[in-house]
Design goal:
Low-confidence stretches: none
Structural class: mainly alpha
Strand content: under 5%
Radius of gyration: 23 Å
Shape: globular
Distance between the termini: 32 Å
Helix content: over 70%
Mean pLDDT: 86
Order of helices and strands: HHHHHHHHHHHHHHHHHHH
Number of helices: 19
């Protein structure tokens, strides 16, 4: 189970890393192709479409849990029938949600653009047409979201990640090609709509291959009740995630304007893309926790949870150091001096906020896998409500930097409350054990490296070469500390055994 979990975790991570690198690498080209104001409109359109997904009641969470449980023991009576009912109930729900949300976007496009948000008059017509086209993308996106979850529930992250990697790489590259050919915002969204339709077709074909016995079955009352009951609380978690990802942009679009939104979006997207990658390592814990809980292997789950938390916290903390300490230089060389001046604080603070939020990822997944979405759902609702209030006040008083500080305040307070609430109750580990065995090994050492890197960055500002050397030195210190003090002895021994095995094979050849 450990090796399988690791393989799935790295497959899931790989499916996000390459598309993230390609997407981040193409952002400057997209901004240049569209212009600052049009890129702000693009950010606004994607935020509106993304926030409309708040109507998603998160049946994917319940579907992953129950498909994983039914698939864990095929000897159960009617196991295949229950999988069939679950899959087609999920498809029905997401088709309906896609239609409702798509119609709302299509008929509300003019009002959003002309009355709610600060869009320049010269861009209003294109923005309305683009948002109407994005309504079709919303429908396809809902189906794609659910179809993507089915291979994951079967612990086939390798398949789901390969598909995600191909489309996640091709779409940004094709976006740049569309802009280089002289097309604009409408054609960029059209490209993404077409790609989403093809993605859905490919996912469905793969699902048919993984579940050859899959047949349409009308969902019974038990399946509908269980899925909706579980998803009712999981929906609150999804609502918080959507609020975190999109509401700040909507507030900035309304109070600051699309140019300020472009500066905030670039910085916050970079922080989100980089810090959220390790969530892909954690994501496999949801079906795994469901499987282990169904088998009653709670001690094994606790051991895996504490070890995974130890490694994920160290990786996230190390990434935070590199992003926060070198935030100005990242934006300066990646974008331009104007973006660096406007977004330096946003990038550093949002990276810290993302790190704090990441501390809830594994506990939430284990909590939900154990069958207690009520706890994570209620805290997610509090996170969304409090976060929106603080971010709104921050934007109203201090602009885009106020939005970043608002996120950080909400993250710190709600994360601490959540960790205290679930450990020892719905998560089979004490908070003291988590802090002592998982958090402490990383915080002290990584904090010392961060302080040294910050001081050195202030002293040695001699240009790109000095920056590269300083970044490499910081990475080397983080790697050395992790190898010496974070990686556990049994994992070091296993890694060394694998290395010796590979070396002996090469000598034999």
């Amino acid at each position: 189970m450990n090796l399988s979990l690791v393989r799935n975790a790295f497959s899931n991570l790989l499916g996000a890393v390459i598309p993230a690198l390609v997407a981040l690498g193409t952002v400057p080209l997209v901004v240049k192709g569209l212009g600052d104001a049009s890129y702000g409109v693009y950010s606004l359109v994607t935020a509106i479409v993304g926030y409309f997904a708040v109507i998603d009641i998160n049946v994917t969470a319940g579907s992953v849990k129950f498909i994983a449980e039914f698939n864990a023991d095929r000897s159960q009576p009617r196991a295949q029938e229950r999988i069939d009912e679950t899959v087609f109930f999920g498809l029905s729900v997401y088709s309906l949600l896609g239609v409702i949300g798509g119609l709302g976007l299509f008929f509300g496009a003019h009002v959003f653009v002309t009355r709610v948000f600060s869009v320049p008059a010269a861009l209003e017509h294109e923005a309305v047409a683009t948002l109407k086209l994005a309504a079709l993308g919303f429908f396809l996106g809902q189906l794609q979201s659910y179809l993507q979850s089915v291979p994951q529930s079967l612990m086939r992250y390798d398949i789901a990640s390969r598909i995600e990697m191909v489309f996640g790489t091709c779409v940004p590259l094709l976006t740049v090609a569309v802009l280089m050919l002289g097309y604009g915002l409408f054609e960029v969204i059209l490209l993404r709509v077409i790609a989403s339709a093809i993605n859905c077709a490919v996912l469905w074909r793969c699902i048919r291959g993984l579940l050859p016995a899959l047949r349409y079955r009308r969902p019974g009352a038990t399946i509908r009740r269980d899925l909706l009951g579980f998803s009712a609380y999981s929906f609150l978690s999804r609502f918080a995630s959507l609020s975190y990802a999109y509401a700040d942009k909507l507030i900035i679009g309304a109070l600051v304007g699309v140019t300020g939104l472009a500066y905030f979006t670039v910085a916050s997207t970079l922080a989100n893309r980089i810090l959220s990658l390790t969530y892909r390592l954690s994501g496999v814990f949801f079906p795994a926790a469901s499987t282990l809980a169904a088998r009653g292997e709670l001690d094994r789950l606790k051991k895996l949870y504490l070890k995974a938390s130890r490694y994920v916290v160290f990786i996230n903390a190390s990434v935070l150091v590199l992003v926060a300490v070198f935030s100005y230089q990242i934006l300066y060389y990646w974008m331009n001096p104007q973006f660096a001046r406007a977004g330096q604080v946003v990038l550093a603070v949002m990276a810290l906020s993302q790190f704090i939020d990441s501390l809830t990822s594994l506990p939430s997944l284990v909590n939900d896998g154990m069958g207690h979405p009520r706890f994570s759902g209620m805290f997610a609702l509090a996170r969304a409500a409090f976060g929106l209030l603080v971010v709104y006040l921050g934007v109203a008083g201090w602009g885009i930097e106020g939005a970043a500080w608002g996120h950080l305040i909400a993250s710190v307070l709600l994360t601490c409350a959540f960790l205290v609430a679930v450990h020892g109750r719905t998560v089979p580990a004490r908070l003291h054990d988590l802090v002592h065995r998982s958090y402490a090994p990383s915080v002290v050492g990584v904090g010392a490296v961060a302080l040294a890197a910050h001081v050195a960055n202030r002293w040695f500002d001699g240009g790109p070469l000095d920056l590269v050397l300083l970044v490499l030195l910081t990475m080397a210190l983080l790697f050395a500390y992790g190898a010496l003090f974070v990686i556990e002895k049994d994992d070091k021994d296993l890694a060394w055994t694998r290395v010796k095995g590979l070396l002996s094979m090469r000598k034999t050849v």
